[in-house]
Amino acid sequence: MEKPHLSFWKIWNISFGFFGVQIAYSLQSANISRIFATLGADPHSLSYFWVLPPLMGIIVQPIVGYASDRTWTRFGRRIPYLFVGALAAIVVMCLLPNAGSFRLSVGTAMLFGLVALMFLDTSINMAMQPFKMMVGDMVSEKQKGFAYSVQSFLCNAGSLVGFLFPFIFTYLGLRNVAEAGVVPDSVIYSFYVGAAILIGCVMYTVLKVKELPPREYALFHGIAEAPQRKEKSDVLSLLRSAPRVFWTVGLVQFFCWVAFMYMWTYTNGAIAGNVWGTTDTSSAAYQLAGNWVGVLFAVQAVGSVLWAWVIPLFRSHRAAYAVSLLLGAAGFISAWFIHDRYLLFASYLLIGCAWSAMLALPFTILTNALSGKNLGAYLGLFNGTICLPQIVAALAGGGLLYLVGGAQANMLVVAGAALLLGAAAVLGVKEKNPAHR
Predict the structure, then answer these.
(1) 103: left (phi > 0), else alpha (psi -120 to 50), else beta?
(2) In terms of Cα–Cα distance, which of 184, 150, 190 is closest to 26?
(3) For the chain, how are helix, strand and coil distributed in percent, rounded to 5?
(4) Structural domains in the chain?
(5) What does the DSSP assignment read for 254-320?
(6) Angle, vertex CA 348, rays to CA 344 and CA 351, nearest 5
């Protein structure tokens, strides 16, 4: 039995909380290297701080997926995990940027920041995954591509806001410099405001969305009866029976997320060096470069939103995927040659094309190939194709930085090369429903 057609606003409500979650995620993405560099981290060690976010994701998201498949409360099956994750995230968002404000030693401040980052990533991952699952649960095959596009739009809108916060707060008069080892107020208050928006957006989804009860869920997903607890659905069994597209799209994901891990890790140092000509993390120029990174990431989000309107014009998901990644590769490589802050807009608009495809197409292709029986578990496991490459990239980052000469801008070329490999890997994807409906 086919799921009922949902109105635009019902689809919007399912994903609206993602706007707030993405603000939190974008604040982390744009500012983690800046925060730890300000605390005193060596550039060759920066990538190691980025191991924690994907590590927590690869642990938390499969657990949330597996557990929520087997959960039902009067509030729903996915929403309880969303709500608890969001509550934890707002607490940690208020602690992390203050790692340097408690008069701790450099080592202790970094340890505090690492523990806070671990809990922030745990909570963000717990809050993020249910949105993807609810689209898979509640939206028909015909509307699923549109629903993930709405989610992509909200994701990019949240990114735009989060990335610009430090720049905006500096413009409004908050201090963008601080004593050595202390994070500036412009960053600290960005996290405070982001936490407030996060809980407001999540509460909107919690109050507006009514999930399918177990009987209706089983009916719409073609399951004869609700899943039984004794069925074999452990991780190894699920992976053995995963459709081929799970692995082929996963390979594309590997190269894509390596690229973006290096963007998040090294853009701050690359822009400070290439445009402002400084590596002094306590200087006003370095902190200005940090604000400009937020602007560039916001431009990337704008590019992603604009490209999201183009993707449906392609005749196949695979062609859209490959072209998007090629454009993103061109953006990364061109950034190496550019030393003007405004000309970099063109590079990051192109990078946004790749990001737009990464947000929507993998989940559209995968969920079209899955039944509803273990949807949450499979989406949680699929998150490993996002987290594992980031862990590999983070562990390899310091060594690669030495190999490419120590200039952080060179790592953006490495990112471009990774996207070229991702575009080539798209050729191996054979999707169940390759044509857009």
Answers:
(1) left
(2) 190
(3) 75, 0, 25
(4) 8-220+236-428 (1.20.1250.20)
(5) HHHHHHHHHHHHHHHHHHHHHTS----TTSHHHHHHHHHHHHHHHHHHHHHHHHHHHGGGSSBHHHH
(6) 145
Q: Kindly report the CA angle at 334 between 347 and 405, in degrees rounded to 5?
A: 125
Count of CB atoms within 10 A of residue 7's CB?
A: 8
What are the two backbone dihedrals, phi and then psi, of residue 202, each rounded to the nearest 5 degrees?
-65, -40
pLDDT tens digits, 212-268 = 777 777 776 666 554 444 455 566 777 777 778 888 889 999 999 999 999 999 999
| 405 φψ region: left (φ > 0), alpha (ψ -120 to 50), beta (else) | left
Q: Which amino acid is at 113?
A: G
Among 349, 338, 297, 308, CA closest to 160: 297
Burial class for 282, CB neighbours closer than 10 Å (0-12, 13-18, 19+): middle
For 9, half-sphere exposure in the C-beta direction (CA atoms, 13 angstrom radius) is 2
Span 91-134, pLDDT tens digits: 999 999 998 888 888 889 988 988 898 889 889 888 888 888 88
- Cα-based distances in Å from 166 to 93, 288, 325: 15, 10, 29
SS3 227: coil
Q: Which two tokens stand for residue 419?
A: 């996207």
Q: What is the distance in angstroms between the CA of the first residue and the CA of the last residue of the chain?
A: 19
User: Side-chain half-sphere of 230: how many Cα atoms within 13 Å?
Assistant: 0
The DSSP annotation for 86-127 comes to: HHHHHHHHHHGGGTTSS---HHHHHHHHHHHHHHHHHHHHHH
Q: How many secondary structure helices (H) and strands (E) does the chain include?
A: 16, 0
Q: Torsion over CA of 34, 36, 39 and 42, rounded to 10 degrees?
A: -100
Residue 433 has pLDDT above 60, yes or no: no
Q: How far apart, in whole angstroms, are the C-alpha atoms of residue 336 and residue 352?
A: 17
Chain segment 42-70, per-residue pLDDT in tens = 888 888 888 877 888 778 877 887 788 78
